[in-house]
Design a protein that fits this description.
- This is Alpha-1,4 glucan phosphorylase.
- It catalyses: [(1->4)-alpha-D-glucosyl](n) + phosphate = [(1->4)-alpha-D-glucosyl](n-1) + alpha-D-glucose 1-phosphate.
- By secondary structure, this protein is α/β, with parallel strands linked by helices.
- The protein has two domains: 388 residues, Glycogen Phosphorylase B (Rossmann fold), CATH 3.40.50.2000; 238 residues, Rossmann fold.
- It is 44% helix and 14% strand.
- The protein has 30 helices and 22 strands.
- Strands 19-18-17-20-21-22 form a six-stranded parallel beta sheet, with helices on both faces. Strands 1, 4, 5, 8 and 9 form a five-stranded mixed beta sheet that branches. It has a four-stranded parallel beta sheet with strand order 10-11-15-16.
- Strand 18, helix 22 and strand 19 form a beta-alpha-beta unit.
- It is globular.
- The C terminus is likely disordered.
């Protein structure tokens, strides 16, 4: 969710009044805003998408709730020490959280373990361990529409008789200390993005949020029915008309068997009726096609933790497979492929299959991704029910990602086309009539330059590096993952470095390359990639031959509040995943909205961005999905590219020989070995096209930045207070011309 203060002021229309009032008190609002901690309760795009949806739904006046876990420790804080990522706990609640309100009156029990008793009256789940779910509510204000929705996050609490009610062994102190075991459920966010780690605590978290939320929804539903003449038999008939539950990936998939358990075991509905209501209630969003990210829970773990749910999943699967067998008799392989249970080795539950079978709608998050979902990953299911599969391309909230982070640009746009675009970005097409308006183009360039100067000052303060604000800001920020190909960017940096050294007198368009993002703590290759980027930066930034032509910065602890600073200052946005791997991406949209140009592959939402803006207005390069498929068929041979491309060979040889790690020459042997022998994401195959495309980028930047085309006026400087020593004034020239 990031920070809340400024977003709340903007959506309530109070920002100017608050700025003024705080100023009158002798305080600086921006300084105050910097004190607030980010709420970092998710990993990457999936968590931020949910946050953007909450803002959007409130602004559209939809009666919607966001449900999740109130982690005591969110995504780790990233420190870079000696070029390596080091994780620190994110103790974001240390000073309290003024935006949340605990709601103990709505506390609910959640059950784990135990066993199932079958009687004439039906199944009973007994001898369970109980954990209490305590809700905390955070307001979600819509933009200037007097709507405030709720985000409800659950915190785990041990009941007061925890470990004391059963066979009291007399160790009272130990029993109280053991309360931590129950309360650990909401202690910490698992920091994996696009990777499944089948840990018991993680499954507990997934069931915890689901069980508490469903009880809450049903309590609210029943309250709306209070005093109605419906019999218990018909009360839930209208449930899907009043309740829609969107599953954000498979992480809340246990909601499907849980709702069935409530309907069948507790409310005593017949199975078929319960199943019909359940399917009409749920819809599922798929967020990735990477096989290592798909959740596949071991059956024995589910049996231990949630025995009744396993039985219900088996029953769902049996009926599902009976149906398929009736349509495709004797096709045993189809049954195996479509089963919710994967046999062979340890039996596992395929949670994506459970979501598809238990939902009435399944969507991907960009056109190309939804196609891949339909024709490749879940092909068998799409053949069965083609009408179930849809596309809903991701989006971003223009409040946070334009008004809040780039007020200068937002105001310029409003002057030309009015303020309605803030609720409806399709109105930005009205700007078409100003493309040849020199003054407007100049003002847009001036805002970008001011944003760059401000960010350069931030970098100077935080990283003690001098940045030339008139250089091209080339930015690659997102989670560190092989499929996102930060390595390819790194190879381009090394190539530029080698070109400058080969011919120092040749005209070179100056660049500041900014790469940032967190690596999952257990992801060795991602951590090596961070170390390599920092090692390359060390060499490049300290080579006198290079001077200020090329600077490389690894942006520490990338998070929402830092994105709000870097995105408005960006000239070039890097969206270079291997075609077919990035489901959508949303950073791509944030950069575009803030006037950066995009260099990218035909992947995810890049495809639709190119369609919308015209492919000639993006720097598109590299293999398309079809080319990747073809290359897989032929067999990808990295060596071939290495032999054929001298600049690639030089860069790889430098990494291999220890040019960037002289004290430990074989430090990056794992990285090089991966690139040659098991690079699933084919960095070498796109290297040449990428470098050529980057040359076009530089040419265009040169033209756009040359005097006459892009006249940049100096901005007002913030004069430091008398108690702070002033640096030499000539260092502070905003357009970066002074030495």
């Amino acid at each position: 969710m990031g920070r809340t203060l400024q977003n709340t002021m903007i959506n309530l229309g109070l920002q100017n009044a608050c700025d003024e009032a705080v100023y009158q008190l002798g305080l600086d609002m921006e300084e105050l805003e910097e004190i607030e901690e980010d709420a970092g309760l998710g990993n990457g795009g999936l968590g931020r998408l949910a946050a953007c949806f909450l803002d959007s739904m409130a602004t559209l006046g939809l009666a919607a709730y966001g449900y999740g876990i109130r982690y005591e420790y969110g995504i780790f804080n990233q420190k870079i020490r000696d070029g390596w990522q080091v994780e620190e706990a994110d103790d974001w609640l240390r000073h309290g959280n003024p935006w949340e309100k605990a709601r103990p009156e709505y506390m609910l029990p959640v059950h784990f373990y135990g066993r199932v008793e079958h009687a004439a009256a039906g199944a009973k789940w007994v001898d369970t361990q109980v954990v209490l779910a305590l809700p905390y509510d955070t307001p979600v204000p819509g933009y200037m529409n007097n709507t405030v929705n709720t985000m409800r996050l659950w915190s785990a609490r041990a009941p007061n008789d925890f470990n004391l009610r059963d066979f009291n062994v007399g160790d009272y102190i130990q029993a109280v200390l053991d309360r931590n075991l129950a309360e650990n459920i909401s202690r910490v966010l698992y920091p994996n993005d696009n990777f499944f780690e089948g840990k018991e605590l993680r499954l507990k978290q997934e069931y915890f949020v689901v069980a508490a939320t469903l009880q809450d929804i049903i309590r609210r539903f029943k309250a709306s029915k209070y005093g109605s003449t419906d019999s218990v038999r018909t009360m839930f008939d209208s449930f899907p008309d009043q309740v829609a539950i969107q599953l954000n990936d498979t992480h809340p998939a246990m909601a499907i068997p849980e709702l069935m358990r409530i309907f069948v075991d507790i409310e005593k509905l017949p199975w078929n009726k319960a199943w019909d209501i359940t399917k009409r209630t749920f819809a599922y969003t798929n967020h990735t096609v990477l096989p290592e990210a798909l959740e596949r829970w071991p059956v024995d773990l589910v049996e231990k933790l949630l025995p009744r749910h396993l039985q219900i999943i088996y029953e769902i699967n049996q009926r599902h497979l009976d149906h398929i067998a009736s349509l495709f008799p004797d096709d045993v392989d189809r049954l195996r492929r479509m089963s919710l249970i994967e046999e062979g080795g340890t039996k596992r539950i395929n949670m994506a299959h459970l979501c598809i079978v238990g939902s009435h709608a399944v969507n991907g998050v960009a056109k190309i991704h939804s196609e891949i979902v339909k024709t490749q990953v879940f092909k068998d299911f799409a053949v069965l029910e083609p009408e179930k599969f849809q596309n809903k391309t991701n989006g971003i909230t223009p409040r946070r990602w334009l008004l809040l982070c780039n007020p200068g640009l937002a105001e310029l746009i409003a002057e030309k086309i009015g303020e309605d675009y803030v609720r409806d970005l399709s109105q930005l097409t009205k700007l078409h009539e100003f493309v040849d308006n020199d003054l407007f183009i100049r003002e847009v360039a001036k805002v970008k330059q001011e944003n760059k100067v401000k960010f350069a000052q931030y970098l100077e303060k935080e990283y003690k590096v001098k940045i030339n604000p008139s250089s091209m800001f080339d930015v690659h920020v997102k989670r560190i993952h092989e499929y996102k190909r930060q390595l390819m960017n790194c190879l381009h940096v090394i190539t530029m470095y080698n070109r400058i050294r080969r011919d120092p007198a040749k005209l070179f368009v100056p660049r500041t390359v900014i790469i940032g993002g967190k690596a999952a703590p257990g992801y060795h290759m991602a951590k090596m990639i961070i170390k390599l980027i920092n090692a390359v930066a060390q060499v490049v930034n300290n080579d006198p031959v290079v001077g200020n032509k090329l600077k490389v910065i690894f942006l520490e602890n990338y998070r929402v509040s830092l994105a709000e600073k870097v995105i408005p200052a960006t000239d070039l946005s890097e969206q270079i995943s291997t075609a077919g791997t990035e489901a959508s991406g949303t950073g791509n949209m944030k950069f575009m909205l803030n006037g950066a140009l995009t260099i990218g592959t035909m992947d995810g939402a890049n495809v639709e961005m190119a369609e919308e803006a015209g492919e000639e207005n993006l720097f598109i390069f590299g293999m398309r999905v079809e080319d990747v498929t073809e290359l897989d068929r032929e067999g990808y041979n990295a060596q071939e590219y290495y032999n054929r491309l001298p600049e690639l060979k030089q860069a790889i040889d430098q990494i291999k020989s220890g040019f960037f790690s002289p004290n430990e020459p074989d430090l990056f042997k794992d990285v090089v070995n991966m690139l040659f022998y098991h690079d699933r994401f084919k960095v070498f195959a796109d290297y040449e096209a990428y470098v050529k495309c980057q040359e076009k980028v530089s040419e265009l930047y040169l033209v756009s930045a040359s005097p006459g085309t892009r006249h940049v006026e100096p901005s007002d400087l913030k004069i430091p207070p008398p108690n702070e020593p002033r640096e030499a004034v000539e260092d502070k020239t905003p357009n970066g011309t002074a030495a």
